Amino acid sequence: MSQSPQSSPKASDAFNHVGVEVDHVSIQFGSNKIVTDVTFSVKPGEVFVLMGASGAGKSVLLRAIVGLIEPTSGKVLIDGMDAANPQTHQKIRTALVFQAGALFNSLSVYDNLAFYPREHRLMSEKRIREKVMDTLKILSLEKAAGKHPSELSGGMKKRVAIARALVMEPQLLLYDEPTSELDPIMAATISEIIAALREQYSVTSIVVSHDRELAYSIGGRVAILHQGDLRTVESPSSIQNNQDPVVKEFLNPEINLKNPRFRKIQQS
Amino acid sequence: MSQSPSSSKPSANPLRWIMGHVNDLVNSGLRPLSALFEYIGGSVILLVRSFSHIPVILSQTNRIIEQCFFMGNGTVPIVTVLSFFIGAVLALQTGFVLNQLGVLNFIGSIVGLSLCRELAPVMVAILLAGRVGSATTAELASMTVYSEVDALKTMNIPPEKILVLPRLTAVVLMTPLLTALSIVSGWLGGMIVSKMVAFLQLSPLLYWRNLKDFVLVGDFIDGLIKAEVFCFAVILIACYQGLSTRGGPREIGTSVTKSVVFSLVFILFSDYFITRMQM
Ligand SMILES: Nc1ncnc2c1ncn2[C@@H]1O[C@H](COP(=O)(O)OP(=O)(O)OP(=O)(O)O)[C@@H](O)[C@H]1O
Ligand SMILES: [Mg+2]
């Protein structure tokens, strides 16, 4: 996948290596605190995996990083520039794979992928065609090119959303649970794609995922968000030996039929 | 609306009880007012943001043409038919009275002027709100609720540029056509009724002569200005309402209703003031 010449930076530019600083970020909706004082930094060209219980605030944090919501306090810096400022995103190409896909429902799969390069007039229709079909092939979606999102299965929608982000050739790529609806082989393919993008183009990735295999195999560092708090950030090998009971329970929950969790909750 | 505790019953301190009620009254009176200001402010901001993309409007030519077709398709048939009948009824009603007064040929001027200055613009705007405004709100609301608008933003494609500006441009282009169509169709309706109905039997020649004597180019232009204001507002309201929808399917439905109701309210309110200004 090559960067097009008209669009700002080339793949080889040092500029392409984009780091992200999340600096004391708190986010609340009304009086409802979702994320409290989270600080971490993602190094340029790193694959950063963010894990955490459902409802912990991971998707909200990703939205703050792409500038869709502004933190209540604190800052997100992308390459030193404020993520809440729209100009930052004009300088740095950021793509987000939404948890629910957020595909354009009135457009076919092909047009969904072609939308970004067409709108920004990045390349000729012929180049777009090659690029879109290549990307679809990688994700085994060639047959779905003419279909509309409503005609796709959940996992196919997810893959189309990933494909749409890949076509954008972003410098910073955020994935919200990219493998959650996929079969094990497709999940492994996605992990391989994320790792390959990092190796070939130094794309910085932040991956929100519950997929431990993905985290351990391609994660540069893994963070765990627990009830809006960052519990730990460390390398995959060390996090597996973490003694913090919350982390331990999260990464290796035991299925205990004698004393199930829901019974404990019912009794308390 | 939350009841303030002080207003529940006239307890120990009557002054506090009264003040509580005054407070409630002011609150309940101000809330819709502040909502109204928020609505107007939001629409104006949307308008300004859309207009900021006018320099690149040519890149949206395809979308503008598409919207023109959409508006034409949705409204041309119904505008033609309904205007025809409005003109017809107007001729019937006024003709009945004018006939008794012995000035039957004034049907032409009455039908001509009322359609041109008043009925055609209002009718076109109302039909546009019902057929195009509602559809626009539904489409934009569903795009907002299902994060498609967020996806556009992350792609650095301002939703105002590709969703709002083409629609506003299309409505500016289409309104004169629709209004002219409505006027002419209504005039024809009036003419046919004046000729055909047994107790009228006004010759088309007299009808047109009277109409031509009274309807001036200025009347036509006043009508077009009115229609442009109404129709532009209908589409702006529809877009704003759609893009500010939060929630799920039910809120999409509510938004569509609101969009049509606000449009109608705006049309009839502003109609009075514009008419007054044009006199
Ligand atoms: N727009 C919003 N308005 C109000 N509350 C919200 C909004 N978006 C999210 N929340 C709340 O924020 C919390 C975190 O949501 P978020 O979507 O970030 O969870 P998550 O960590 O991504 O969970 P999951 O793994 O299930 O996707 C939830 O309690 C949710 O109710
Ligand atoms: Mg989520």
Order of helices and strands of chain A: EEEHEEHEHHHEHEHEEHHH
Question: Which CATH class of the domain at 20-104 and 170-267 in chain A?
Answer: Alpha Beta
Major β-sheet profile of chain B: none
Helical content class of chain A: 25-40%
* Chains forming the largest contact: A-B, 23 and 15 residues
Structural category of chain B is: mainly alpha
Task: Write the element-wise H/E pattern of chain B from the N-terminal end onward.
Answer: HHHHHHHH
Query: Number of folding domains of chain B?
Result: 1
Please list the strands of the largest sheet of chain A in the order they lie side by side: 6-7-8-3-9-10
Bound molecules: adenosine-5'-triphosphate, magnesium ion
Q: Quote the CATH topology of the domain at 20-104 and 170-267 in chain A.
A: Rossmann fold
Helix content class of chain B: over 70%
Give the SSE layout.
The complex is a heterodimer of chains A (268) and B (279).
Chain A: E1 20-29, E2 32-42, E3 47-52, H1 58-65, E4 73-78, E5 81-82, H2 86-91, E6 94-97, H3 109-119, H4 125-138, H5 154-167, E7 172-176, H6 184-201, E8 204-208, H7 212-218, E9 221-226, E10 229-234, H8 236-239, H9 245-251, H10 261-267
Parallel strand pairs in A: 3-8, 3-9, 6-7, 7-8
Antiparallel strand pairs in A: 1-2, 1-4, 4-5, 9-10
Helix pairs in contact in A: 3-4, 3-5, 4-5
Chain B: H1 14-51, H2 61-101, H3 107-145, H4 148-154, H5 159-196, H6 204-214, H7 217-243, H8 249-277
Helix pairs in contact in B: 1-5, 2-3, 2-5, 3-5, 3-6, 3-7, 3-8, 5-7, 7-8
The structure holds adenosine-5'-triphosphate and magnesium ion.
